[in-house]
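Before we proceed, please read the two lines closing this message. Let me know whether the structure tokens fit the sequence:

…
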Amino acid sequence: MADAEQTDLQTECAKLIRWHREDGDALTEMRATIERLREEKRELGELAALRESELIARRARVAELEQQAAAVQPTADRADRPDPTPPRSST
């Protein structure tokens, strides 16, 4: 009977060792996945920051061009329009 108990304990111990090793392998895989996801998050954050700075620069350029166009537009309008004052009669 002692041999049967010892065999059962050895079998149980072997199962626990196998489970522990499997848990360790799964944990290692999870850690690698977490690190990969952190790296992807960092890269996406850098890309988003770059895109945001590009957008800000483009908006500033559009605003600058709009200001330049507004400064030029009234002059061009005046040259195209006839003089609003009627001609004086020389009588």
Q: What stands out?
A: Residues 2-80 form the longest helix (79 residues). The two ends are 142 Å apart (CA to CA).
